[in-house]
């Protein structure tokens, strides 16, 4: 595996379920490095001269999954950079969200120790995202894109959650509660699993 001896927790859940919010809290208490695949793609998109800028822009607006080679390379670069700084524990947020990504990452990077899966009713996620859209500046925080993201999540990403569930790696957390209550559930699961 490459790089060796890293500890990966995948953080999955629908758009707006609270992945980023909970990861930020975990970073403070658990010394994890937080790597959001979506954030890495948005950063690449806005890097002047990036050969993938237009492509990423299109996929994100359409709520589609960017071809895996691009996302995995961005994740690998970020992991290696952090590895060189001595970091070994990673929260990989919003990835893998398509089976080909899951298999490729398992084979070439890490199998992942645990999957945090945030469960949330679509109506709640919709309200959160529309609300965030007033200030986020994200090109996909609008009703049309949000609906497409929900469809992709159900059709393409849920099979990944089920794949990990079959390996007994999934911890389900109900996200339709205040941020701190959700976090308490996460922490108790981490303690139980010795993370
Ligand atoms: N909020 C959070 N928790 C709350 C709570 N408990 N109670 C009340 N409010 C709560 O939260 C969303 C909003 O809800 C915030 O305003 C927050 O304050 C509030 P956040 O923590 O940001 O939720 P998160 O799950 O991180 O939502 P995000 O919008 O980031 O999820 P997505 O999965 O849609 O976005 P991501 O950035 O991961 O991906 C975006 C796009 O990138 C994808 O659609 C896809 O096109 C592309 N992509 C790929 O192609 N490949 C990848 O591998 C990854 C991404
Ligand atoms: Mg996020």
Question: What do you see in this structure?
Answer:
The chain has 195 residues and is of the alpha/beta class. It has a single domain (7-192), classed as P-loop containing nucleotide triphosphate hydrolases (Rossmann fold, 3-Layer(aba) Sandwich). It is built from eight helices and five strands. It has helices at 19-30, 37-45, 53-61, 68-84, 99-108, 122-136, 143-166, 179-192, and strands spanning 7-13, 33-36, 89-93, 114-119, 170-174. The protein is globular and about 40 Å long. The mean pLDDT is 96. The structure holds P1-(adenosine-5'-P5-(uridine-5')pentaphosphate and magnesium ion. Residues 19-20, 36, 38, 94 line the site of magnesium ion.
Second-tier CATH architecture: 3-Layer(aba) Sandwich
Question: What is the terminal-to-terminal distance?
Answer: 20 Å
What is the CATH C level class, in words? Answer: Alpha Beta
Strand and helix order: EHEHHHEHEHHEH
Report the principal-axis shape. globular
Give the overall average pLDDT.
96
How many distinct helices?
A: 8
Bound molecules: P1-(adenosine-5'-P5-(uridine-5')pentaphosphate, magnesium ion
Strand numbers in spatial order across the main sheet: 2-3-1-4-5
CATH topology, which one?
Rossmann fold
Largest beta-sheet characterization: 5 strands, parallel
How many domains, as an integer? 1
| Secondary structure tally: strands | 5
- Going by helix content, strand content and strand pairing, the class is alpha/beta
Cα Rg: 16 Å
| Helix coverage percent | 55-70%
Low-confidence stretches: none
> What is the percentage of strand-forming residues?
5-15%
Keywords: ATP-binding, Cytoplasm, Kinase, Nucleotide-binding, Nucleus, Pyrimidine biosynthesis, Transferase
Family: Belongs to the adenylate kinase family. UMP-CMP kinase subfamily.
Protein name: Uridylate kinase
Region (NMPbind): 36-66
């Amino acid at each position: 595996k490459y790089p060796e001896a890293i500890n990966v927790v995948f953080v999955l859940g629908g758009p707006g379920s609270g992945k980023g919010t909970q990861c930020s809290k975990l970073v403070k208490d658990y010394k994890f490095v937080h790597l959001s695949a979506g954030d890495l793609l948005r950063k690449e998109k806005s890097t002047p001269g990036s050969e993938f800028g237009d492509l990423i822009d299109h996929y994100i607006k359409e709520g589609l999954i960017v071809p895996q080679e691009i996302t995995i390379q961005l994740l690998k670069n970020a992991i290696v950079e952090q590895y060189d700084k001595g970091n070994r524990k990673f929260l990989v947020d919003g990835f893998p969200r398509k089976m080909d990504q899951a298999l490729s990452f398992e084979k070439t990077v890490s199998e992942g120790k645990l999957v945090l899966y945030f469960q949330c009713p679509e109506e709640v996620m919709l309200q959160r995202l529309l609300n965030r859209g007033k200030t986020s500046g994200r090109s996909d925080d609008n009703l049309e894109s949000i609906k497409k993201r929900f469809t992709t999540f159900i059709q393409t990403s849920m099979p990944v959650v089920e794949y990990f569930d079959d390996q007994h790696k999934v911890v389900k957390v109900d996200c339709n509660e205040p941020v701190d209550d959700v976090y308490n559930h996460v922490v108790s699961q981490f303690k139980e699993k010795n993370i």
